[in-house]
């Protein structure tokens, strides 16, 4: 069956709305065959210059967001004993580089979670893949002095 596309907006760093979005998707289509987690947020700066607030925002977007969405969709895949989950991550989930501590930490955490998930989902015939590309060009805004939010890469 072919479905008309439906646009559903989601801020992956806003953990509180992810469950509702997943329900909306499942109510609309009945299932998700392939879930591709591809949202990301990063910031460049020395560890001592990045606030704990920003560290948490990066962790929400890059770790808690994808796992929250995955956990919301997973019961449907398990009950159907089929599905594919993909995490588009980063090479920095395998190696860290200077001035990217929060980003690298969030990507390391995501790799660990999805590696464990892969092993657990094998019995349900659900494929879990992690893609770790090297450095890519992405949209960036130059920050105003003192405006850490503007220094976020999206």
UniProtKB/TrEMBL annotation:
Which gene name belongs to this protein? Answer: Dhrs7c
Sorted alphabetically, which PANTHER family does this protein's record hold? DEHYDROGENASE_REDUCTASE SDR FAMILY MEMBER 7C, PTHR44668
Q: Which GO terms describe its molecular function?
A: oxidoreductase activity, acting on the CH-OH group of donors, NAD or NADP as acceptor
Q: What is this protein called?
A: Dehydrogenase/reductase SDR family member 7C
Gene3D superfamilies in the cross-refs: NAD(P)-binding Rossmann-like Domain
Biological process terms from the Gene Ontology for this record are: intracellular calcium ion homeostasis
Q: Which UniProt keywords apply?
A: NAD, NADP, Oxidoreductase, Signal
What the record says about family reads: Belongs to the short-chain dehydrogenases/reductases (SDR) family.
Checking Pfam families in the record gives: adh_short
Source species, please? Dryoscopus gambensis
Keyword Signal present in the record's keywords: the answer is yes
Its lineage reads: Eukaryota, Metazoa, Chordata, Craniata, Vertebrata
**SUPFAM superfamilies (alphabetical):** NAD(P)-binding Rossmann-fold domains
The superkingdom listed in its UniProt entry is: Eukaryota
């Amino acid at each position: 069956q072919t479905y008309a596309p439906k646009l559903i907006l989601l801020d992956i760093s806003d953990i509180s709305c992810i469950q509702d979005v997943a329900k909306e998707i499942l109510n609309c289509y009945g299932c998700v065959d392939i879930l591709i987690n591809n949202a990301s947020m990063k910031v460049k700066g020395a560890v001592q210059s990045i606030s704990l607030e920003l560290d948490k925002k990066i962790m929400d977007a890059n770790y808690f967001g994808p796992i929250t969405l995955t956990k919301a969709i997973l019961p449907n895949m398990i009950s159907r004993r089929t599905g594919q989950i993909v995490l588009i991550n980063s090479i920095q989930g395998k190696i860290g580089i200077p001035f990217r501590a929060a980003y690298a930490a969030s990507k390391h955490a995501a790799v660990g979670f999805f590696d464990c998930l892969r092993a657990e989902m094998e019995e349900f015939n659900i494929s879990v893949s992690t893609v770790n590309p090297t450095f890519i060009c992405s949209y960036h805004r130059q920050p105003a002095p003192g405006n850490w939010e503007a220094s976020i890469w999206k």
